[in-house]
Each structure stands twice: as structure tokens, then as C-alpha cells.
Amino acid sequence: MSDSSARVPCTIVTGFLGAGKTTLIRHVLTHANGRRLAVIVNEFGDVGIDGEILKGCGDEACPQDNIVELANGCLCCTVADDFVPALDTILARTPLVEHIVIETSGLALPKPLVQAFQWPAIKSRVTVDGVVAVVDGAALAEGRFAADPDALARQRNADAALDHDNPIEEVFDDQIACADLVVLNKLDLLDAEGADKATAVVQRALPRAVKVVPVANGKVDAAALLGLGIGTENDIANRRTRHDAETEHDHDDFESFVLPLPEISDPASLAARIAAAATQASVLRVKGFAAVTGKPMRLLVQAVGARVSHHYDRPWTAEEAREGQLVIIGMKGLDHEGIARSLLG
Fold first, then answer.
1. pLDDT tens digits, 90-148
2. In the chain, which residues have pLDDT < 50?
3. Could you count the other beta carbons within 10 Å of the beta carbon of residue 239?
4. pLDDT at position 150, please?
5. What is the DSSP code (8-state) at residue 316?
6. Under 8 Å CB-to-CB from 118, ≥6 apart: which residues?
7. Are residues 122 and 30 in the same domain?
8. Cβ atoms < 10 Å from Cβ of 250
9. In the prediction, which pLDDT does 159 show?
10. Is residue 321 part of a domain?
């Protein structure tokens, strides 16, 4: 077996907050077609909501032990401290993992992570099968990258030095610049005109010919997503991004906090409170879960701006306290107390 064939392929799934990365990966795990998978989840916040969403949805293909959560900060900033140990953990599993899926945080720049695959401690063991950028088609059709343009406007106005594209646009551009495949998600929310508008935004941002796959609810065939065989690390130097001149970067424009959520009685009421909070504050994303009185199933809650969705994902286990948690992500300066009051009702 050659060195290249011995390396475990890794798919990097990138995309802005709320684009649907976790939903896409969950679909892949439940339709793995017998392939043994592992997932590295880079959570932005203090609690592993994305990992919780993924666990238990593809046990045969990807048992819980094969899901590794990194919550110490954006992976592209902490790659040396977090990524290598996570790989060590996964590659030591038996039976051997056949493919690794890496979900970056919504704020991550893909290029530093891809470049890490050239490090001596990594390059002989794994390769980048491809970088997949998931984009929010509904937001793009409405002329924005996030569901709360007012928050972006406030951030822009507060920064006297900002006279060009805002940071979110820069993150979007960098993710598209590094992509080997673009998944245009949330097609179910778009009519034909909206789909054309969203596709045009992506095509304008693409620096080269890359396949754009329009989907609803992150439902991409695992066979189309995994096994691209590109070896992106060998070409990453040719993918020009806005941050190429920077030796490091930060995400000071964003912050997050975790809100414990007591048992609720009405999911629709919670969804309405989340939507209201998003329109009144610089909230970009809410995700988490809740316990509903009288219901044995856990309620999964996800919101992008004022668009809120919720469904029951799995039963509560006997060992778990029936307590919910929400991660609130937004622009710097979030009113934690005000948002908490509005969400708790």
C-alpha cells in the first residue's frame, strides 16, 4: 500500500453561523453506507451543542467515542494545541476509522487548518479529501450572509477604521476561496428567483470552477460529499484569501455565552421569544436543547436570526438532568442579561 493510500482522508466542513453544517454532517452519519467515520467538532462556546446534536444519530457508522469535541476556541487559531491530539485520539481507535469529518466553527478560516495537514506530525497519516463550504441560501437570496443585518450595520458603524467589506463577508469569502465543493443549503426556503440570486452570489465569490450543489436540510449524498480525493493541502498555497498577509487572526467581533434553560411547557412560545430576541439584539445564532414538560424526548432548537426551528431529536436518558441549554452567538457587546430575560420569559 502506498503512503498516499494509507493516509486517512479528512473532509473539512466549513461555513458561516447557521448555514447548516451540523445538519449536513448528521445526514452523512445516518447515510454512511457502512463506512466507519469519525467527527471532530469545533464548538464556538462553552458547551458542546453541535456534538450533542451529532451523538446518537449514526452509532454503527460513528459511535459516540468517535466524536471528538474541541471547545477551546476557533480551530484555525488553536490547531497546534487541539488538532493533533484530536487526530491522535481518533487514529488510535479500533476498528480503524476510514474517514474523518471535521466541522469547523462558523468563524473559522479554512486555510490555516488545511495548511496544518502539511506538518510532519500529520502529513504521513491523513490527507484533506476536500473542503466543503456550506452556505445559507436563504440569507444570500436576501442580500446578506447573516439573518440580522442590523447587527452588522451597528458593528460597521462602531468601527471607524472599517471602510471596506465587513468581517463576516471576509470570513465568507475566505471559506469560498478554499472550497472544493459548495453546498447551497436551505433550498426549501427559496423560490426559483431566490435560488438564482443565491447561486449568483456564490459564483461571484468563487475564484475558480467549483461545483455548487443546491440542497434542502443539508441532505447531500454521502457518496457525493466524501471521497473527493483532492488532497487540498497540496494546492492550498494557490488559494488566495483576504488573510494571506496575516500571521495570525482573531475573532474579536464575535462573542458567545451559554444560557441554562429550565424545563419549558410550550416549544412555540420559546421559539417566539428566541425570534423576538434576535430582532432586538445583535444575535446571529442560537442553538441548543430544552426539556418539555410531559415529553420524554429532548427538544432540539436552532435559530439563525429570527428564523427558528425545533424538533424532538432523542429521548432523555436516565442519567441526564432534564435541563436545557442554549448557546447564544452574536456580535461583540451582547446584552447578556437582557437576552437572558427575554429568552427565559
1. 888 888 899 999 988 777 788 888 988 988 778 889 999 999 999 999 888 987 765 44
2. 1-4, 45-47, 76-77, 147-149, 151-166, 247
3. 19
4. 52
5. P
6. 233
7. yes
8. 11
9. 34
10. yes
| Segment 190-229, tens digit of pLDDT | 999 999 999 999 998 888 888 899 999 888 888 888 888 9
Residues 321, 200, single domain; the answer is no
List the one residue out of 303, 330, 292, 343 whose CA is nearest residue 107: 330
Please check whether residues 68 and 166 belong to one and the same domain: yes
Give the domain CATH number at 262.
Answer: 3.30.1220.10
**What pLDDT does residue 22 have?**
83
Q: Cis (ω within 30 of 0) for the bond into 95?
A: yes
Check which CATH number belongs to the domain holding 139 and give it: 3.40.50.300
**How many domains would you assign to the chain?**
2
Name which of 201, 197, 199, 230 is nearest 212 in CA terms.
199
If asked whether residues 203 and 282 sit together in one domain, one would say no
In this predicted structure, what is the pLDDT of residue 80? 54
Q: Is residue 212 part of a domain?
A: yes
Are residues 254 and 283 in contact, defined by beta-carbon separation less than 8 angstroms?
A: no
Tell me the three cell numbers of residue 163.
471602510
Confidence (pLDDT) at 49: 52
Q: Specify whether 195 is located in the same domain as 168.
A: yes
Instruction: Note the helical H segments in the chain.
Output: 3-6, 21-30, 49-54, 84-91, 110-116, 120-123, 137-141, 149-158, 167-177, 192-205, 222-225, 267-280, 336-344
What CA–CA distance (Å, rounded) separates 302 from 201?
25
Element (H, E) at 185: strand 181-185
Q: Examine the domain organization and report whether 99 and 133 are in the same domain.
A: yes
**99: nearest Cα among 90, 88, 112, 89:** 90
Same domain, 202 and 313: no
Are residues 31 and 60 both part of a single domain? yes
Q: What is the extent of the structural domain holding 308?
A: 254-344
Q: How far is CA 168 from the centre of its chain?
A: 14
